[in-house]
Amino acid sequence: MVFILGSCGNGNPLNTDYKPKAISKSNDLVVVADKQIWEGEVGDTFRYYFESAYPITPSPEPIFKLRFFTPQELDAEPLRKQLRTYCVLANLADTTSWTTRLIRKDYGDAKFGELLRDDAPQTGVGMNKWAMDQLIIYVYGKSEKELIEAVREHFHPIASKIHEHDAAQIKANTYISGRHLGLTEKLSNEFGIKMDVPGDYKEALSKKVKEGHQLIWLRKDTPKATLNLVFQKMKYKDIDQISVGNAIALTNDFGENVQTDNPESKLRVNQTDLPILENVKEINGNYTLEIRGIWEMTEDFMGGPFVSYLIPQEGEDHYIFIHCFVYAPGIEKKQFLQELEVVVNSFDFL
Asked: For residues 180 and 230, what is the distance between their CA atoms, to the nearest angstrom?
């Protein structure tokens, strides 16, 4: 990604002129382009990538919710310029294009001329053009074919930049009730981990499963959803414990503690209808195996998405299993998973 400094507003990145605070939810993305671009192959390609399914939910949910405006429509209603995140798509070869003119104005004539070189970058980033806390990503090419390739090639860095921009808002919503000092201290004392537990979580269950195996279940209840965080600390024997199979087994074992009106119903991982996604990552420098999938109750029409993490502590004889799951019938679940991920990303060993 190429960061364009001073390309927005009056050209001064430190412009102190009053601007309203940008509005809109995380994961919302406004696309600005000429109508023929959006309704043609470029728009089809953009929607294919940016509206692809978020991993993994019971019903498909798009990674981003898209809204489209032409530059003229953007100018016609001032409130449309106060949203948080935009992506501008332009074929720079079309000199009559309103979107090309918008990019030329934002970049300035000298910089715009550089964009027409064969080796020029195909993306740029501007901040706070019409409102504060606003992100504008420019994607361009010297033909529609080049523009399509730019969308394909830069989808992942663009998505990462938008997620990074949304992170502060998601974190603020997650910790709107502050931090639960009691539960944070309990995780520290009994599990040897650092974790910023949001203030609106409560302890649902805490027990010693067996020697060297502790479990605590934290949950947050709202009128629309229940968010759950389960921590287990266990003896580490070998690398085979850091596996998808072990994560599923631990989840199913924990599921014995989840009760509904039907005493025969148990929480289980659904390995039949939807895949289990596996990813290796780091959380604050700690090797982590991440697993995503769908949980269901065996005798009830209840289920939802989960994300689990297996984290061994280097040089120690134990590992941590974190299981996050959401129950939110009838509404999208992606936003709740993202809140849980914010909490997990505060994890570290003491």
From this structure: 16
Burial class (CB in 10 A: 0-12, 13-18, 19+), 210: exposed
Mean pLDDT estimate for the chain: 92
Q: Cα separation of 136 and 88, whole Å? A: 7
DSSP H or E stretch at residue 116: none
The DSSP code for 197 is -
Residue type, 320: I
101-130 average pLDDT score: 91
Query: Which amino acid is present at 263?
Result: P
Give the pLDDT band (50/70/90) at residue 274.
confident
Query: Would you kindly state where each structural domain of the chain is located, as residue ranges?
Result: 28-174, 181-349
In the structure, what pLDDT confidence band is assigned to residue 49 with cuts at 50, 70 and 90? Answer: very high
pLDDT score of 13 more than 80: no
Sequential DSSP letters for 158-183: HHHHHHHHHHHHHHHHHTTT-B-HHH
pLDDT band at 68; cut points 50, 70, 90: very high
> In whole angstroms, how far apart are CA 9 and each of 20, 75, 84, 103?
13, 14, 15, 12
Closest CA to 59 of 305, 258, 250, 239: 305
Nearest to 300 by CA among 256, 267, 253, 333: 267
**DSSP string for 278-294:** EEEEEETTEEEEEEEEE
Nearest to 305 by CA among 322, 323, 290, 325: 325
Reported confidence tier of residue 6, pLDDT bands at 50, 70, 90:
very low
- CA-CA distance, 193 to 187, in Å (whole number)? 6
For domain 28-174, is the CATH number 3.40.50?
no
> pTM of the full predicted structure?
0.87
Provide the total of helices (H) and of strands (E) in the chain, helices listed first. Answer: 9, 15
181-349 folds as: Protein Transport Mog1p; Chain A (3.40.1000)
- Nearest Cα to Cα of residue 6 among 111, 81, 80: 111
Name beta bridge partners: 86: 30, 136
